[in-house]
Amino acid sequence: MTADLLSTVATGDAARAELGRLVTYVDRHSVAFCTSSWWLEAAARLLPAEPVVITVRAGPAPVAVAALGVTKKRGARRISLLGGELNDYGQLFHDDEPAAVALGEAIAAWTAEQGRWSLDLDQLPPGDPVAGVLVDRLGASLGEGPPMPQIAGLGTDYRISRNRVRNAQKAINRVEADGRTWARLTIEDAEVVDRWLPRVVELRRGRDHGVGRRSHLDDPAARSFYTAVVREAVARGRAAMNLFLVDDDLLAGYSVVMFDGATHRFFDCRVADDHQRYRGGSVCELMAVTRARDAEDVTGFDWLRGRTEAKFGNDELFRVRVTASSHRSVVAIDEWEQATRQRVKAVLPAAAVRRLVAR
């Protein structure tokens, strides 16, 4: 790259307009559904964080882009990737190392102008040169993210165990033993998804409350974002929704899977809290995995962040997290608040926790 590199910063409505101009560039570099232009545009439009787009150009052509979000909390500006904690894959887009370095310098310079601030860029790829610049310029810390369980070689090198298939069949047997009917439904039509989304959202919230935690879908903005991206992904042929129905109309569980080329990613899944004995989540989970196994062009299945007993496979990925702050007190207050919440939750009876989170 020989042309001079110039950076610009757009915020608010100007950032939304800039994302519209960068659709082709972003999608050419995107590595997952949550780094696509339509995901970022929905986040800029629907989530409360103010969007900030930093673009590096060589002449008129973009060569690097950072899509960020800024919120204000306890007197400090909190800077994250656009979409924040909802992103299982974070990405700072760049053509090559010189462009990446220029982008890192531009992010660092803009961040340093924000007064009291904290920076938390999560789920970036290991070895990202932009992250290295931020470590040098802002004194940022670089840490390993949570494990992301994977199934590599699905259908060839890896076989789904008979026990997992039997567990799903046991769920169906329970329905039949109760004298009820059942159906497994896969939806890939956006208009049909529209009809089911309100019930999926309420099932998700009910299950989260049932285990004593707030649901991120309790927040109206997060709920609007969730429904918008699921519908858009299905409309684009990038997702499917699986449902397990009892007696035609009782929603016992669901899963949503995103399609990223040769990899299917497990976006969301829940069992109906009032009908756990039917194991609807397990049924829909197996529907997702067996579809990926049977598809000729799919070779991997990605469970996204976090280990659980339900997630199985033969590999794990780890992304990285870049954090920094203008003042140590900004982070100290956050740590104190988190510790206080954990102490309060630990001493409250489980029933009291469920009542609180359901409010």
TrEMBL record:
This is BioF2-like acetyltransferase domain-containing protein. Residues 163-310 form the BioF2-like acetyltransferase domain. The lineage of its organism: Bacteria, Bacillati, Actinomycetota, Actinomycetes, Propionibacteriales. It comes from Nocardioides panacisoli. InterPro entries: BioF2-like_GNAT_dom (IPR038740).
